[in-house]
Design a protein that fits this description.
Length: 272
């Protein structure tokens, strides 16, 4: 069967595969709905050069997000400009290589920071909600999305029920740092906003984990999580609305983790 060269070239230019009739692949229309690599086309038996270069660029961005510097002082300054008190603390990890090789070290504060936290907490009268921000595996995520998420969340939490700590900014932390700090402070809830492991299409994705009655013995099933917080995923404002609703239900029912069911209609969050 003779190939229609014109149609084939048009299909390639549209970043698609020609179908059996020589037309454009109908999958192409789905590209606008997802960052996933679908209908990327081919050249002979291989991927097209633009697709290969795009993949390599995405991989480079993901690596850059992991190793990008996290300027805790700069982020603290931005929070202060937005009206928040802050406290910069440090884990037992002091560099990214150690962080990647030694996950346990990011779960606890070093001794100096532990002493500073205990001293500072003496003036935090009535605090029942510990709020933590960390770069995790993507400093880009924390730098770009943490401030807006926190700002929107605080607006939605009733001040008479939620006594929020100063924003604790902790480089090289792991999710479990919220249990460690929660136990020291004796708070009712703890929340950590932390950079996710970058995907090939999402180097700036932030996660929010909260725990009801956090203690060192808390396990992963005691947490609730909202992930993919970023403008191309769940925008910070929408994530804050969902967090506020989940936290409110956690408080009302006195539960958290797998016992707390997410029955929220995300479509309605977009409408509100």
């Amino acid at each position: 069967m003779k190939t229609d060269i014109t149609k084939t070239n048009n299909a390639v230019r549209a970043n698609s595969l020609p179908n059996k009739m020589g037309g454009a692949d109908p999958w192409v229309s789905l590209q606008a709905l997802t960052d996933a690599r679908i209908a990327i086309g081919r050249s002979g038996g291989s991927q097209r050069t633009p697709s290969i270069l795009d993949f390599r660029l995405a991989h480079a961005r993901a690596r850059d997000a992991v190793f990008a510097p996290f300027d805790a002082e700069k982020l603290a300054s931005e929070f202060k400009d937005a009206g928040f008190e802050t406290l910069i603390l440090n884990t037992k990890i002091s560099d990214k290589s150690s962080y990647l090789m030694n996950p346990e070290g990011g779960k606890e504060l070093n001794e100096e920071s532990k002493k500073r936290l205990c001293e500072a907490a003496k003036t935090w009268d009535g605090v029942n909600f510990a709020l933590i921000v960390s770069d995790g595996l993507s400093a880009t995520a924390a730098n770009e999305n943490a401030l807006e998420t926190v700002s929107e969340l605080v607006k939605l939490l009733p001040a008479d029920k939620w006594k929020i700590s100063p924003i604790m900014i902790i480089p090289f932390a792991r999710v479990k740092i919220q249990d460690y700090i929660g136990q020291i402070l004796g708070v009712r809830h703890s929340l950590v906003l932390i950079g996710e492991r970058p995907g090939l299409g999402s180097p700036d994705s932030l996660s929010a984990y909260f725990t009801y009655k956090p203690r060192w013995e808390s396990v992963e099933s005691d947490r609730n999580c909202i992930s993919n917080i970023r403008m191309q995923g769940m925008p910070p404002k929408i994530a804050a609305r969902k967090l506020a609703l989940l936290l409110g239900e956690s408080l009302r029912l006195g539960i958290g983790g797998t016992a707390l069911k997410d029955n929220i209609d995300d479509a309605k969050l977009l409408e509100s």
